[in-house]
User: Fold tRNA (guanine-N(1)-)-methyltransferase from Euzebyella saccharophila.
Amino acid sequence: MRIDIITVLPELMESPFNASILSRAKEKGIVEVYFHNLRDYTDNTYKQVDDYQYGGGAGMVLMIEPIDKCISGLQKERQYDEIIYMTPDGTTLDQKLANQLSLHENIIILCGHYKGVDQRVRDKFITKEISIGDYVLSGGELGAAVLCDAVIRLLPGVLNDETSALTDSFQDNLLAPPVYTRPADYKGMKVPDLLLSGNFPKIEKWREEQALERTQRLRPDLLK
Ligand code: ADE
Assistant:
């Protein structure tokens, strides 16, 4: 999978991709991530990428021209499955959407900033608008990093244990069951006996029951 990220703050985005699972995915050649600094697509001496909004009002708006240059240049090189705009008024990211996006070959992610982007960018280029939750961030970069993490860990070969993404919370609209590791007794706090029994069919059944009980208690909305 190839991900092209368009941003005015590439430095804010690079570090999550240089650690742990995401860096391993890059090293294994499973994902390629490219950052494009919007300022590199301006002609003006001040490398200005934003301007005041027509009609007045507080806040700057990202201009269409550098975004057009960047996206059009990328589109000349290859076909993109989705051109995503990170924005608080987009569709809220969930596991189902991450699963869908993980099936794509090439995606572009445009990070909004200030008051957002000129509406004509959204009308002409954007195929999907995604929010990571009902709160406003200072830009789309952290949202894009969250989105990339959720998608990249699903790509085949990224996680060591191939089944582990399938047993994540939300994969069946259920929260994951509780997990334990050594020691079996820590200061009198004991691991449930069943997990030490070696009776795997029973353990599997217990995990299913726990997942359902947890979901009913903590996130009943998922069961509707
Ligand atoms: N940009 C600003 N706030 C955002 C949010 N909640 N999700 C995605 N992008 C954003």
Observations:
- The helical segments are 10-14, 20-27, 64-77, 95-101, 119-124, 141-152, 200-218.
- Residues 64 and 121 are 6 Å apart (CA to CA).
- DSSP finds seven helices and nine strands in the chain.
- The radius of gyration is 22 Å.
